[in-house]
Here is the input.
Amino acid sequence: MNILITGGSGFIGSRLIQALLSKGHSITNLTTQENCTRTSRVRNIYWNAHERICNLDVNELFDGVIHLAGYSVSNKWSKKNKELMVSSRLESTAFLSELIQNMEIKPNWFIGASAVGYYADSASWLTEDSEKGNGFLAELTDKWEKAAQPILDLGIRLSHIRIGIVLSNVDGALKKMYPLFKYRIGSVIGSGEQYMSWIHINDLVRQFIFIAEHEEIRGKINGTAPMPVNNREFSKTFATVL
Here is the structure.
């Protein structure tokens, strides 16, 4: 397949691109780096969603689109950063929707990143049909998903993966936690009873590809492992491993 992707240089995107290439797919990466040249296997094209600039040829045929772009919510939640978290997601999704609307031949599918931060705090099992929570992250993910409505209106198969805490030995949540636990000062946060819905990066990457390859899958999907753990169990396990 010929796949258009945003956020391809990020933690998830870079791993996903490598997996897609290994399966023989062709990748076009929309990047905010103006001088980013084509690599031997990935074509990089400059875009700026805020200024509505993109060098993509809308007459090109893409089988599908994977949208990962967005300022990381793992950054400090200052007023300025929260504004970036919102604008980077909503502006990029709106602009990407416009680009797709202008394509003569529309892609068959669109997979957008989202987050389990959509849900309310609960010790009960939650599904993709559970009610939205309150607070910044819940509102952000709700607006992020709704921004893709124009794509659904075009009749394109639309899916959103509500991603949990992504684990990897080289990046993601563990990279930030590792120094504290390595030097034996990592600990349970608060009561430790709060649940952590997690997923390994390899499983998340396979999930994106599985959804892309199966046309019957659409709508909201939870990108988490089957068995969440609370913070106490997670912290104890991580400390034991180290």
Summary: The chain has a mean pLDDT of 92. The helical segments are 11-22, 79-101, 136-146, 149-153, 173-182, 201-213, 231-241.
